[in-house]
Specification:
Elements lengths: L3 E9 L8 E9 L5 E6 L4 E2 L4 E10 L5 E2 L2 E6 L6 E4 L3 E2 L6 E2 L4 E9 L12 E10 L10 E8 L16 E4 L15 E4 L1
Parallel strand pairs: 4-13
Antiparallel strand pairs: 1-2, 3-5, 5-11, 6-10, 7-12, 8-11, 9-11, 12-13, 14-15
């Protein structure tokens, strides 16, 4: 809710009637909005150079109408991705006057770092950063979020064995960069 400011003024008659006064009270209540942000729909992992899509949603928890609400996704920490926020659509009102409990929903397009089909790209994580605000938003604690996406490169490998043979072992990870705790060059057995 908003903070109230109370102003009281008294206008009294001159002497000898100084005890006769008119009193006026003015109460001004500032109304506040409370914007929050969430990013959804992005995968947990993506290949180097891949284009992935998600959504950023910014919600006004009110109680007042949010004035000049914003909703933007950008490259976060760790850096490396290229992020574009599309045109936002309000569930009610407009971004200039977003009513209580209304949302701004915006498409997000992310291009992951690295090259599609390129060399062996080391595993890393990039951050997609989401922000929202409004002129009368008094709670900045929920105005940001981060969605991490792992970049994992797996090069194509070929393995062959006699037709119908079982228990054949081939090293399919010799040219891949794999996460911590996994042995590089690990062998896989096809049963």
């Amino acid at each position: 809710s908003g903070a109230a400011f109370l102003a009281t003024s008294a206008l009294c008659a001159p002497a000898p009637n100084a005890t006769q006064c008119d009193t006026a009270t003015l109460t001004v209540t500032a109304t506040a909005a409370d914007m929050s942000v969430a990013i959804t729909g992005l995968p947990v992992t993506a290949a180097p150079g891949a284009t992935i899509n998600g959504t950023i949603t910014c919600t006004n928890a009110g109680p007042a109408t949010a004035t000049n609400a914003t909703c933007v996704a950008s490259a976060g920490v760790p850096a490396g991705a290229t992020v574009t926020t599309g045109v936002c659509v309000a569930s009610a009102g407009t971004a200039a006057a977003l009513p209580n409990l209304a949302t701004l929903t915006c498409p997000v397009t992310v291009t992951m770092p690295g090259t599609v089909g390129g060399g062996d790209t080391a595993q890393t994580t990039v951050g997609i950063f989401g922000t929202t605000s409004a002129t009368n938003d008094t709670n900045a604690a929920n105005n940001t979020t981060t969605a991490p996406v792992n970049v994992i490169d797996a090069l194509d490998d070929a393995a062959s064995g006699p037709g119908g043979a079982t228990a054949q072992t081939a090293n399919l990870a010799a040219n891949d960069t794999i996460g911590a705790g996994a042995a590089a060059g690990a062998a896989f057995t096809i049963q």
